[in-house]
Amino acid sequence: MQVDWATMSGNYANFAGILAGFVFSGIFLLLEDEKRDASEVISILFVGFFGLVLTAFLFSNISGMEAEALDQNRIRLVSFHLVIASIIFSIAIMQMFLSLVFIFILYQLPTQVISLGKTIYYGSALIATMFVIRTIPALYTDEAILSALPRNLYLAVVVTVVFTFILSKLFRRKLDVLFERYFIMIITATFLFMLLLVVLYNTQLHLKDIPVIVDQVIMGMFTVNMMINNFSINHEYRMMQLQDKK
Protein backbone atom coordinates (compact mmCIF):
# COMPACT_ATOMS: atom_id res chain seq x y z
CA MET A 1 0.00 0.00 0.00
CA GLN A 2 1.42 3.34 -1.07
CA VAL A 3 1.38 6.10 1.52
CA ASP A 4 0.36 9.62 0.50
CA TRP A 5 3.36 11.35 2.09
CA ALA A 6 2.44 14.80 0.79
CA THR A 7 -1.10 14.89 2.21
CA MET A 8 -0.14 13.31 5.54
CA SER A 9 2.84 15.62 6.08
CA GLY A 10 0.84 18.65 5.00
CA ASN A 11 -1.82 17.84 7.58
CA TYR A 12 0.82 17.47 10.32
CA ALA A 13 2.40 20.76 9.27
CA ASN A 14 -0.93 22.58 9.50
CA PHE A 15 -1.72 21.02 12.89
CA ALA A 16 1.71 21.94 14.28
CA GLY A 17 1.33 25.49 12.97
CA ILE A 18 -2.06 25.89 14.69
CA LEU A 19 -0.67 24.59 18.00
CA ALA A 20 2.31 26.94 17.69
CA GLY A 21 -0.14 29.84 17.46
CA PHE A 22 -1.84 28.80 20.69
CA VAL A 23 1.50 28.41 22.46
CA PHE A 24 2.66 31.84 21.29
CA SER A 25 -0.56 33.35 22.66
CA GLY A 26 0.15 31.67 26.00
CA ILE A 27 3.65 33.16 26.11
CA PHE A 28 2.27 36.63 25.36
CA LEU A 29 -0.39 36.40 28.09
CA LEU A 30 2.13 35.25 30.70
CA LEU A 31 4.50 38.08 29.81
CA GLU A 32 1.71 40.55 30.56
CA ASP A 33 1.16 39.11 34.06
CA GLU A 34 3.54 41.12 36.22
CA LYS A 35 2.23 39.73 39.53
CA ARG A 36 3.83 36.28 39.14
CA ASP A 37 7.26 34.98 38.20
CA ALA A 38 6.36 32.92 35.13
CA SER A 39 9.93 32.51 33.84
CA GLU A 40 9.88 28.72 34.20
CA VAL A 41 6.56 28.33 32.40
CA ILE A 42 7.61 30.74 29.66
CA SER A 43 10.84 28.81 29.11
CA ILE A 44 8.87 25.57 28.70
CA LEU A 45 6.41 27.25 26.35
CA PHE A 46 9.22 28.78 24.31
CA VAL A 47 10.90 25.39 23.81
CA GLY A 48 7.53 23.93 22.84
CA PHE A 49 6.87 26.84 20.47
CA PHE A 50 10.26 26.33 18.82
CA GLY A 51 9.56 22.60 18.43
CA LEU A 52 6.14 23.18 16.88
CA VAL A 53 7.40 25.81 14.44
CA LEU A 54 10.31 23.54 13.53
CA THR A 55 7.92 20.61 13.08
CA ALA A 56 5.65 22.65 10.81
CA PHE A 57 8.67 23.57 8.67
CA LEU A 58 10.01 20.00 8.48
CA PHE A 59 6.64 18.46 7.62
CA SER A 60 6.09 21.17 5.00
CA ASN A 61 9.45 20.26 3.52
CA ILE A 62 8.49 16.57 3.47
CA SER A 63 5.13 17.31 1.83
CA GLY A 64 7.03 18.86 -1.09
CA MET A 65 8.93 15.64 -1.78
CA GLU A 66 7.78 12.95 -4.16
CA ALA A 67 8.33 9.39 -2.95
CA GLU A 68 8.28 7.58 -6.27
CA ALA A 69 7.36 3.91 -5.98
CA LEU A 70 10.42 2.68 -7.88
CA ASP A 71 12.99 5.00 -6.30
CA GLN A 72 14.03 3.21 -3.10
CA ASN A 73 16.52 5.91 -2.07
CA ARG A 74 13.79 8.54 -2.33
CA ILE A 75 11.41 6.45 -0.25
CA ARG A 76 14.09 5.91 2.41
CA LEU A 77 14.85 9.64 2.47
CA VAL A 78 11.19 10.56 3.00
CA SER A 79 10.79 7.83 5.65
CA PHE A 80 13.90 9.03 7.50
CA HIS A 81 12.76 12.66 7.45
CA LEU A 82 9.28 11.65 8.57
CA VAL A 83 10.65 9.76 11.59
CA ILE A 84 12.85 12.68 12.70
CA ALA A 85 10.02 15.21 12.28
CA SER A 86 7.65 12.92 14.22
CA ILE A 87 10.06 12.68 17.16
CA ILE A 88 10.44 16.47 17.33
CA PHE A 89 6.66 16.86 17.05
CA SER A 90 6.13 14.43 19.95
CA ILE A 91 8.63 16.30 22.14
CA ALA A 92 6.96 19.62 21.38
CA ILE A 93 3.52 18.21 22.25
CA MET A 94 4.85 16.98 25.60
CA GLN A 95 6.34 20.40 26.33
CA MET A 96 2.99 22.00 25.58
CA PHE A 97 1.13 19.80 28.07
CA LEU A 98 3.98 20.16 30.58
CA SER A 99 3.55 23.93 30.48
CA LEU A 100 -0.16 23.47 31.16
CA VAL A 101 0.61 21.70 34.45
CA PHE A 102 3.11 24.41 35.39
CA ILE A 103 0.50 27.09 34.70
CA PHE A 104 -1.95 25.31 37.01
CA ILE A 105 0.72 25.20 39.73
CA LEU A 106 1.77 28.81 39.11
CA TYR A 107 -1.78 30.06 39.67
CA GLN A 108 -2.21 27.65 42.62
CA LEU A 109 -5.35 26.06 41.27
CA PRO A 110 -7.11 23.38 43.34
CA THR A 111 -5.28 20.08 43.79
CA GLN A 112 -7.88 18.24 41.71
CA VAL A 113 -7.22 20.51 38.73
CA ILE A 114 -3.45 20.06 39.07
CA SER A 115 -3.92 16.28 39.30
CA LEU A 116 -6.04 16.38 36.15
CA GLY A 117 -3.31 18.35 34.38
CA LYS A 118 -0.69 15.82 35.47
CA THR A 119 -2.86 12.95 34.26
CA ILE A 120 -3.35 14.63 30.89
CA TYR A 121 0.40 15.18 30.61
CA TYR A 122 1.17 11.54 31.43
CA GLY A 123 -1.41 10.45 28.88
CA SER A 124 0.09 12.72 26.22
CA ALA A 125 3.58 11.37 27.01
CA LEU A 126 2.33 7.80 26.61
CA ILE A 127 0.60 8.59 23.32
CA ALA A 128 3.69 10.45 22.06
CA THR A 129 5.91 7.48 22.93
CA MET A 130 3.60 5.04 21.12
CA PHE A 131 3.43 7.41 18.13
CA VAL A 132 7.21 7.51 17.80
CA ILE A 133 7.55 3.74 18.19
CA ARG A 134 4.94 3.18 15.47
CA THR A 135 6.75 5.62 13.16
CA ILE A 136 10.32 4.28 13.44
CA PRO A 137 9.61 0.99 11.57
CA ALA A 138 9.17 3.09 8.41
CA LEU A 139 12.99 3.07 8.21
CA TYR A 140 13.11 -0.67 7.54
CA THR A 141 11.87 -3.21 5.00
CA ASP A 142 13.42 -6.37 6.47
CA GLU A 143 10.60 -8.49 7.93
CA ALA A 144 12.87 -9.97 10.61
CA ILE A 145 13.76 -6.49 11.90
CA LEU A 146 10.18 -5.22 11.64
CA SER A 147 8.78 -8.09 13.68
CA ALA A 148 11.15 -7.51 16.61
CA LEU A 149 11.63 -3.72 16.41
CA PRO A 150 8.55 -2.52 18.38
CA ARG A 151 9.36 -4.95 21.20
CA ASN A 152 12.98 -3.77 21.32
CA LEU A 153 11.91 -0.12 21.38
CA TYR A 154 9.35 -0.67 24.13
CA LEU A 155 12.02 -2.54 26.08
CA ALA A 156 14.39 0.42 25.73
CA VAL A 157 11.66 2.72 27.04
CA VAL A 158 10.81 0.48 30.00
CA VAL A 159 14.46 0.01 31.01
CA THR A 160 15.10 3.77 30.80
CA VAL A 161 11.95 4.57 32.81
CA VAL A 162 12.84 2.10 35.57
CA PHE A 163 16.46 3.24 35.73
CA THR A 164 15.66 6.97 35.85
CA PHE A 165 12.79 6.41 38.31
CA ILE A 166 15.11 4.58 40.74
CA LEU A 167 17.73 7.34 40.40
CA SER A 168 15.10 10.03 41.03
CA LYS A 169 14.07 8.31 44.27
CA LEU A 170 17.64 7.76 45.46
CA PHE A 171 18.78 11.32 44.75
CA ARG A 172 15.53 13.24 45.13
CA ARG A 173 16.91 15.92 47.46
CA LYS A 174 19.93 16.58 45.26
CA LEU A 175 17.72 16.70 42.19
CA ASP A 176 15.37 19.13 43.93
CA VAL A 177 18.28 21.48 44.55
CA LEU A 178 19.50 21.02 40.99
CA PHE A 179 16.09 21.76 39.49
CA GLU A 180 15.59 24.76 41.78
CA ARG A 181 18.87 26.35 40.70
CA TYR A 182 19.23 25.30 37.07
CA PHE A 183 15.71 24.58 35.85
CA ILE A 184 15.90 26.75 32.73
CA MET A 185 19.24 25.18 31.78
CA ILE A 186 17.69 21.72 32.21
CA ILE A 187 14.78 22.68 29.96
CA THR A 188 17.33 23.97 27.45
CA ALA A 189 18.56 20.37 27.15
CA THR A 190 15.26 19.56 25.41
CA PHE A 191 15.96 22.34 22.92
CA LEU A 192 19.44 20.91 22.31
CA PHE A 193 17.99 17.43 21.77
CA MET A 194 15.71 18.83 19.07
CA LEU A 195 18.68 20.56 17.47
CA LEU A 196 20.53 17.23 17.45
CA LEU A 197 17.59 15.67 15.64
CA VAL A 198 17.65 18.48 13.07
CA VAL A 199 21.34 17.74 12.46
CA LEU A 200 20.43 14.07 11.88
CA TYR A 201 17.63 15.21 9.55
CA ASN A 202 20.22 16.85 7.30
CA THR A 203 22.58 13.86 7.14
CA GLN A 204 22.70 11.00 4.65
CA LEU A 205 21.99 8.28 7.21
CA HIS A 206 19.03 7.10 5.16
CA LEU A 207 21.49 5.75 2.57
CA LYS A 208 22.83 3.26 5.13
CA ASP A 209 21.27 0.42 7.07
CA ILE A 210 20.57 2.03 10.44
CA PRO A 211 21.34 -0.38 13.30
CA VAL A 212 18.46 -1.03 15.69
CA ILE A 213 20.70 0.07 18.57
CA VAL A 214 20.60 3.61 17.14
CA ASP A 215 16.80 3.60 17.38
CA GLN A 216 17.02 2.30 20.94
CA VAL A 217 19.47 5.05 21.92
CA ILE A 218 17.17 7.71 20.43
CA MET A 219 14.18 6.22 22.26
CA GLY A 220 16.29 6.18 25.44
CA MET A 221 17.07 9.89 25.05
CA PHE A 222 13.43 10.59 24.27
CA THR A 223 12.40 8.73 27.43
CA VAL A 224 14.99 10.54 29.59
CA ASN A 225 13.52 13.84 28.38
CA MET A 226 10.06 12.58 29.31
CA MET A 227 11.23 11.50 32.78
CA ILE A 228 12.90 14.88 33.36
CA ASN A 229 9.54 16.47 32.63
CA ASN A 230 7.87 14.09 35.07
CA PHE A 231 10.34 14.94 37.83
CA SER A 232 10.03 18.68 37.13
CA ILE A 233 6.25 18.44 37.62
CA ASN A 234 6.64 16.63 40.94
CA HIS A 235 9.38 19.03 42.02
CA GLU A 236 7.29 22.10 41.24
CA TYR A 237 4.29 20.63 43.04
CA ARG A 238 6.40 19.88 46.14
CA MET A 239 7.73 23.44 46.13
CA MET A 240 4.18 24.79 45.95
CA GLN A 241 3.14 22.64 48.94
CA LEU A 242 6.15 23.83 50.95
CA GLN A 243 5.24 27.47 50.27
CA ASP A 244 1.64 26.86 51.35
CA LYS A 245 2.86 25.49 54.70
CA LYS A 246 4.95 28.58 55.44
Topology:
Elements: H1 5-32, H2 39-63, H3 72-106, H4 111-135, H5 143-170, H6 172-201, H7 212-245
Summarize model confidence as the mean pLDDT: 87
Distance between the termini: 63 Å
Strand content: under 5%
Number of helical elements: 7
Rounded to an integer in angstroms, the radius of gyration calculated over CA atoms is 19 Å
How does the overall form come out from the CA principal axes? globular
The tally of beta strands, per DSSP, is 0
Q: Return the structural class.
A: mainly alpha
The assembly state of the depicted protein chains is single chain
Q: Biggest sheet, open or closed, and with what strands and sense?
A: none
SSE topology string:
HHHHHHH
Contiguous uncertain segments of 5+ residues: none
Proportion in helices? over 70%
Salient structural properties:
246 residues; mainly alpha; 7 helices; 83% helix; 0% strand; globular
What can you tell me about this protein's structure?
- This protein has helices at 5-32, 39-63, 72-106, 111-135, 143-170, 172-201, 212-245.
- The protein is mainly α and 246 residues long.
- The longest helix is centred in the middle third of the chain and has 35 residues, at 72-106.
- The radius of gyration is 19 Å and the shape is globular.
- It starts with a helix and ends with a helix.
